[in-house]
Design brief:
The chain has 175 residues and is α+β, with helices and mostly antiparallel strands. It has one domain (12-174). It has helices spanning 16-23, 27-35, 105-109, 114-136, 140-153, 158-161; strands at 46-51, 55-57, 69-78, 81-89, 95-102. Strands 1, 2, 3, 4 and 5 form a 5-stranded antiparallel beta sheet that branches. A hairpin with a 5-residue loop joins strand 4 (81-89) and strand 5 (95-102). Helix 4 (114-136) crosses helix 5 (140-153). The longest helix is centred in the last third of the chain and has 23 residues, at 114-136.
């Protein structure tokens, strides 16, 4: 059960690629539909499939509400793969990918509606939140403060934080 991240805080912005993904059963089906679409696709570019909005936190630590820590997520088409990414953002607006998962064909076939995508994003952000609370071993507010402080100095105990994720962090696969 989450304490901070709720389903209501998860936004999934649909794109033309979202429509193709939701109709697809696997990668070959996705690429067949993509090739028959009017989308100009270049495998060397990254495309937003289902970008999410920002989840802001630690507003109370900064004088200006526009400067706070944030988490964002979404599904992207990257080097011929559909990836799930989690980004963290400093109070200065610098963003970093801390988690990247290449979706498998079985995961693609389960995404049949935008609500399925929102549930997928929520499930894994919920796991991230549990990892933050477990790592810092404090209540959610203090854990997010410590997490934000780590973001600012670019020193995070990611092994502990990401240890609650039920999918693998295969960010190295794309480098």
């Amino acid at each position: 059960m989450t304490e901070f991240i709720s389903k209501e805080r998860i936004f999934a912005n649909a794109t033309k690629l979202t429509e193709i993904l939701l109709k697809s059963e696997n990668y070959s089906d996705f690429y067949e539909r993509l090739s028959n679409s009017d989308i100009d696709y270049n495998e060397n570019k990254t495309y937003e499939v289902v970008p999410s909005g920002f989840i802001d936190f630690n507003q109370h630590l900064y004088e200006d509400i526009n400067h706070m820590n944030s988490i964002s997520t979404g599904l992207y088409l990257e080097k011929s793969f559909i990836t799930f990414n989690i980004f963290i953002w400093t109070s200065r607006g610098e963003g970093f990918v801390i988690f990247k998962h290449v979706l498998r064909g079985g995961e693609i076939s389960k995404l049949n509606s935008i609500d399925d995508v929102k549930e997928y994003l929520f499930t894994h952000l919920n796991e991230l939140e549990r990892g933050i609370v477990k790592t810092y071993n404090k209540d959610i507010k203090e854990s997010l403060e410590d997490f934000g402080a780590g973001i600012e100095v670019k020193r995070l105990p990611l092994a502990g934080i990401l240890g609650c994720m039920s999918i693998e962090n295969n960010i190295q696969d794309l480098r």
